[in-house]
Amino acid sequence: MIFAIIIVVFILIAVLVGIYNGLVRTNIRTEEAWSDITVQLKRRADLIPNLVSAVKGYAKHESSVFDAVTKARSETINATNNGPEATAKAEGGFQQALKSLFAVAEAYPDLKASTNFQQLQTELTDTEDKIQASRRFYNTSVRDFNTKRKVFPSNIFANMLGFKVDKEFFDVDEAEASKIQNPTEVSF
Hints:
CATH architecture: Up-down Bundle
CATH superfamily: LemA-like domain
Number of helices: 7
Largest sheet: none
Radius of gyration: 23 Å
Shape: rod-shaped
Structural class: mainly alpha
Mean pLDDT: 84
Strand content: under 5%
Order of helices and strands: HHHHHHH
């Protein structure tokens, strides 16, 4: 009888350790994925001043567009410290500002033909692709963590083990998404 109790206790401890380790692994994977997003956002933010400088040389009178891009860049960098929801909101504004900047660039054929501008645009496109891939990886990690937290038997022990809150997905909200789908008009 004592042997059976020891085996049951051992199995229960093994299950608990397995659940805990699984939750820790998915939590770390989610934190790593968020770190990847912040790295790519920082990389993009570092490209923006060069892009703005290249466009400024051709379109000096478009200072409101440059101010908007600079402000949106700053808001995106600051938002990464406040989590996915704040970052997603800032991202929507940043995407709008970039669209305005590229709309200005479209009006200047010499600028579009500039090797420096084309290289910056290529790097920015590459970075945007990496941001999208990082977002997908992060959201997959969040889904895995949230699922692991809610499925049986993990859901019984997750709160006791300190995993009380679901992670946030990195999604652009509906209002921001509609802004992105409807480009900003720039008039000269």
